[in-house]
Amino acid sequence: MTTPGVDDAVSGLRPVTERRLHPVTPLRRAWAPVAVLIGWAVHDPDQAQRQLTRLTTTTLLLALAVLVPAAALYGFLTWWFTHFAVTETDLRIRTGLVFRRTAHIRLERIQAIDITQPLLARVAGVAKLKLDVIGTDKKDELAFLGEEEARALRAELLARAAGFAPETAHEVGEAPSQQLLRVPPGVLAVSLLLTGATWGTLAAAVVVPTVLWLATESVWTVLAAAVPLFGAAGASSVGRFVTEYDWTVGESPDGLRLDHGLLDRAHETVPPGRVQTVRIVEPLLWRRRGWVRVELDVAGSSNSVLLPVAPREVAESVVARVLPGVSVPPHASLSRPPRRASRCVPLWWRGYGLAVTDAVFAARTGLFQRSLALVPHAKVQSVRLSQGPWERVWGVADVHVDTGANKTVTARLRGAEEAAELLRGQAERSRTGRKVARPDRWMA
Amino acid sequence: METGSPQNTGTAEDGQAGAERVGGDHAGDEPRWTGLPPRLLRMRRLLLVVWLGLLTIGLAVVLGLFAGPAWAAFALLPLALMAWGWVMLGRNWRSWRYAERADDLLISRGVLWREETVVPYGRMQLVEVTSGPLERHFGLASVQLHTAAAATDATIPGLDPAEAERLRDRLTELGEARSAGL
């Protein structure tokens, strides 16, 4: 960290140049009043009908003459008063017409950078850029920037975060990316068809309205139940297909690159050493094909999928790239809880497993949908041991490992002696693990 | 919450003895456990007696006036609860302890639901010392540690204010020396 004095001296040398967002930005909320009107009309059709018949052409024109310039002025002013600047140490966003707000986002704390392009933004040739830092929210995204500008800005931010000298950070440019994997659409579609959640929500969307119709014979009740259920079914099948379409994983010196989306495109970059947890999930119906889904947790980022579907060996090689020096422990090397654990959790105790290697703490849960969570020792924030009265009777205890992405990985029902040893050992391993961990500025 | 049956008390103490033994095995880095000051127990017991005492008297008066003196015997229920709570508070208070090791802080607590937390100094983001009006009157302060994980639940309630400040300063100092990113 630099002291304030040094900071001032540095910014004194190079004046901070402030920039504005792309000029189409004011239009981003243009649909909002229309949506409000439509929502009102759907909510109360009779009233809307009556109001519409009372409208004459003159009042309509008058209303438009007032509303359109007012909205345009508001949009223009918010755009005019929003500035951003990249300095040596942070990205500054200054915004607000009446209530001023200035956000300074420290570049060395960047956990991930996302560029997203909703469908309309793709048509207009613009993109949103969002920095994931712990504590940032939706207000801190830069929407919208020109497509080329967004890419250049991402490259510059990554170069500065990586620790390149400020003078050269402009010229470093986009780091070359090497494609590791691309998920074919066919495989993605089959994998979604083999997911229980897809069929479960679809069945619920068919069964619940039918039962309601037989019970009440009221169209409104059935519609009120059917619409959200079909929405959920659509989101879990078609929606997932659309977002996970053309999933590409690439590797570059700036970290991992994830590009995906059919209509809305998203390009995410996770710099090296930012991944807190990796989960390898294996749904029951995928097991015969040997497919797995890989999820990852990055602090401050909402995205959690690394690979929607991939063969196990491929997934393991990608995990090895994401967490350098980590090999996924095979099923056979995971130790089960002692037999007496079945008195605490019947049947499902067989799903629990644990392996601790030099690099990771790996805990498996689930009997049908197996999920193996890996935490590098260097990412452990705290370790907890807990034991309830019934667990004490059978001499077992749970060990929780907390990570910075607000996820807790739990090794359940270990023998009491083993758990106490694990608690002490894990604290020791995390300490030594941190010493060899990479610095925040990965190129420095 | 706690249903103190004799067998459980026995196993609980065995468990604690076991934890101490395992801790002692750790070569050259034996944790020195510190308990909480007796003032905390006194404050909690006083609160228990005051609230349940008021409840007992209120219940006895109301029942005696409106339902007859025989019903007033039900007012003994809060008294029994008070006796049970008195013992439980004592056990819970005895179970709380912490140890500062070279690189991490250990906190162990709970009788039936036992929990032990290890927080490495380098992971601390914030150390907080809080003290409410009642706590201040009894000369107590709590220390709370925050890491980047919200699940980290490392609070030491009811310390001596001087000890709380010493702990806070030491933790911040050690945290700076061993500081690490996420």
UniProtKB/TrEMBL annotation, chain A:
Basic and acidic residues compositional bias, start-end: 426-444
All copies of the YdbS-like PH domain together span: 79-156, 253-319, 349-423
Where is the secretion signal located? Answer: none
Q: What InterPro entries is this protein classified in?
A: UCP026631, YdbS-like_PH
What are the record keywords, sorted? Membrane, Transmembrane, Transmembrane helix
Q: State the source organism's domain of life.
A: Bacteria
Q: Where are the transmembrane segments?
A: 60-82
- Residue ranges for the region (Disordered) are 424-444
Q: Which PANTHER family match?
A: UPF0699 TRANSMEMBRANE PROTEIN YDBS, UPF0699 TRANSMEMBRANE PROTEIN YDBT
In Swiss-Prot or TrEMBL terms, this protein is called YdbS-like PH domain-containing protein
TrEMBL record, chain B:
Keywords annotated in UniProt: Membrane, Transmembrane, Transmembrane helix
The record's annotation in Pfam families points to: bPH_2 (PF03703)
What ranges does the record list as Polar residues composition bias? Answer: 1-11
Q: Where are the transmembrane segments?
A: 46-65, 71-89
Q: Where is the composition biased (Basic and acidic residues)?
A: 22-31
Outline the segment boundaries, as ranges, of region: Disordered. 1-31
YdbS-like PH domain: which residues? Answer: 93-171
What PANTHER family does its record include? TRANSMEMBRANE PROTEIN-RELATED (PTHR34473:SF3), UPF0699 TRANSMEMBRANE PROTEIN YDBS (PTHR34473)
Stated name of the protein: YdbS-like PH domain-containing protein
